Amino acid sequence: MAAVQEREFAALQTLLKAPSKDAVRQLCRECFSSPPAGLGPLAQRACPALAAGPEKAEKLVSALHSLTRHVVYCGLTKGEDILALFPENFHQNLKNLLTKIILENISAWRSEAQASQISLPRLVDMDWRVDIKTSSDSISRMAVPTCLLQLKIQEDVALCGNSPVVSALTVELSKETLDTMLEGLGRIRDQLSAVANK
Amino acid sequence: AADKINLIPQDFFAELCEQIIQHLNHKIPGVDIAELCQRIQASGIDINVGELAKLANAVSFLFSTAARNNLSTEDLVATLGSAATALPKHAVQVIRHVWNEQGKSVSASEDARSMATVGQFVDMKWKLGVAMSSDTCRSLKYPYVTVTLKVADPSGQITNKSFEMTIPQFKNFFRQFKEMAAVLETV
């Protein structure tokens, strides 16, 4: 994530025409959360509120996106570190306001960045049921306990954008296969404890 | 499927037929198509998983139909010979051999497992990782668990499903499985 450019800070001055501090706050959040492709439409929506032409709005939105993402990328958490990013002659009040807004949102933004980074599909939900098979067309009487497990798995967020694809995987487990699963999970738990204690 | 048979060398085809008949005999939960395909591709043969799966289905259908009709080895070979698209000689040889050895034990065997309507869990592989850095956060140190479940679908083909969990999700996952096991104990 490249450092924020001089001209991008200049573009931020357009915020001085914003109707309120809350409007700035809202815009910052939207600029952070928007992917680069969404910045164009976002700029168009922001134009009227900022009393700025489309070109200025686009430059502003792009600069805010850059600034907020840069702060999250570098993992800055202290006010003085964020203030230090701004050039010397930057408008004092605006600098303080932006720093305040960033500090308010930094931890939520960090979580958002972690949640949307590339990954394998993620587990989003799991449901289970224990059944007993009592009979079938080939066997008239039996008492076989069996587990039905349904895992809801969401495909990579980065690939799906705004419409995440969730697939359901339904699996049957017998007592033996459930024990196999538990053994594997137990080993993961042991590893986690070992790593946590280091 | 018949034309793809021509591409597969005899030893791989034999392995495929062996797995299929063992699955029909309930000796193994399913046929690991993806794994077999990887090995076939590694030896330089151009076949994809879908094509191999179609072939496996065809062979499985052949064996189970033969079992239902109580075909002897000679009958089966004769049926193959009279089929519209002729199979290569080495394929017929393999089918004859596998059927001869294990065909008799394929039957509508009395087994609770044959009532599979959902995938059967076969195995679980796992990995515990820590994401160090990404394009959005230079310093992450984000631990996560990756799991790959091997599932045999009702037709007997084994597929892999991989997914990630956060540590709190994993703890909940583990807890749920312990609950399941506890319930299974009591029924």
Question: How would you characterize the overall build of this protein?
Answer:
The complex is a heterodimer of chains A (198) and B (187). The two termini of chain A are 31 Å apart. The mean pLDDT of chain A is 87. Chain A folds into two domains: 6-116, no CATH class; 122-197, no CATH class. Chain A has helices spanning 6-12, 21-33, 39-50, 54-74, 79-83, 92-115, 157-160, 175-196, and strands at residues 122-133, 144-154, 166-173. Chain A is an alpha+beta fold and 198 residues long. A three-stranded antiparallel β-sheet of chain A has the order 1-2-3. In chain A, helix 4 (54-74) packs across helix 6. Chain B has two domains: 1-116, no CATH class; 120-185, Nuclear Transport Factor 2, Chain: A (Roll). Chain B is built from seven helices and three strands, in the order H-H-H-H-H-H-E-E-E-H. Chain B has a three-stranded antiparallel β-sheet. Chains A and B meet through helix 4, helix 6, strand 1, strand 2 and strand 3 of A and strand 1, strand 2, strand 3 and helix 7 of B.
Write the layout of secondary structure elements.
The complex is a heterodimer of chains A (198) and B (187).
Chain A: H1 6-12, H2 21-33, H3 39-50, H4 54-74, H5 79-83, H6 92-115, E1 122-133, E2 144-154, H7 157-160, E3 166-173, H8 175-196
Antiparallel strand pairs in A: 1-2, 2-3
Chain B: H1 2-5, H2 10-24, H3 33-42, H4 49-68, H5 73-81, H6 89-102, E1 119-131, E2 142-152, E3 158-166, H7 167-186
Antiparallel strand pairs in B: 1-2, 2-3
Helix pairs in contact in B: 2-4, 2-6, 3-4, 5-6
